[in-house]
Specification:
Order of helices and strands: HHEHEEEEHHEHEH
Strand order of the largest sheet: 1-2-6-7
Helix content: 25-40%
Strand content: 15-25%
Distance between the termini: 20 Å
Oligomer: single chain
Largest sheet: 4 strands, parallel
CATH class: Alpha Beta
């Protein structure tokens, strides 16, 4: 995401990259994390950009952050374009990452969670919200993604209304590991924003 934010800035776009609450360098307790909280984080971030005079806005979200971006777009009139990367079409999909009722395994790291995390997931219908977006939507998904299967990207694309585009990467995995894959994604997003913003 750092490379993507830098690339967007180099292309002339203002880019705000942040960690969700309780991730990376953001404060908060991961045990209290929920998808609803991630949506609120995105809404606050986009609102801050608009208050600073930047706009129109676009959202980019990776993995569960992609689902959060879809959900947040409905609360933000200023969002003119959306991109998701490796996003699940069903928020409950992340249940396979749970190593127990109180732990989640993310990229080999185990975090404690509370039951509210799982209970909150079922409150969000990502496919329904996707069908109601009414904004340009670029779906990026690698065919070799073993965390969130490529079929999720296909379901999001099928649910979305035009204008929409599916960038199906032959390789890249869930984290877009190969540099060539990451560069292809950056180029596709810059082109998409040039067309839709």
């Amino acid at each position: 995401m750092t490379r993507l934010a830098n690339g967007l800035a180099d292309a002339g776009y203002a880019a705000l990259r942040f960690d969700f609450t309780a991730r990376g360098e953001s404060g908060g307790d991961f045990r209290h994390k929920t998808l609803s909280g991630n949506v609120s984080d995105l809404v606050r971030a986009a609102t801050h950009l608009i208050q600073m005079g930047f706009g129109p806005c676009a959202l980019i979200g990776h993995s569960l952050g992609g689902a959060a971006a879809i959900l947040a777009a409905h609360r933000l009139k200023t969002v003119r374009s959306l991109v998701t990367i490796g996003a699940p079409s069903d928020a409950s999909h992340v249940r396979h990452l749970l190593s127990s009722d109180t732990e989640v395994n993310i990229a080999g790291r185990v975090f404690e969670i509370e039951p509210t995390f799982v209970n909150d997931l079922v409150c969000h219908d990502v496919i329904s919200r996707t069908s109601q977006l009414g904004r340009p939507y670029l779906i990026v998904h690698a065919k070799d993604d073993t965390i969130v299967d490529f079929s999720n990207g296909q379901r999001l694309f099928d649910a979305a209304v035009a204008p929409k585009r599916l960038l199906a990467l032959e390789e890249g995995g869930h984290l877009l590991g190969p540099r060539a894959s990451a560069e292809a994604v950056l180029e596709a997003i810059v082109d998409w924003f040039d067309e839709t913003l």
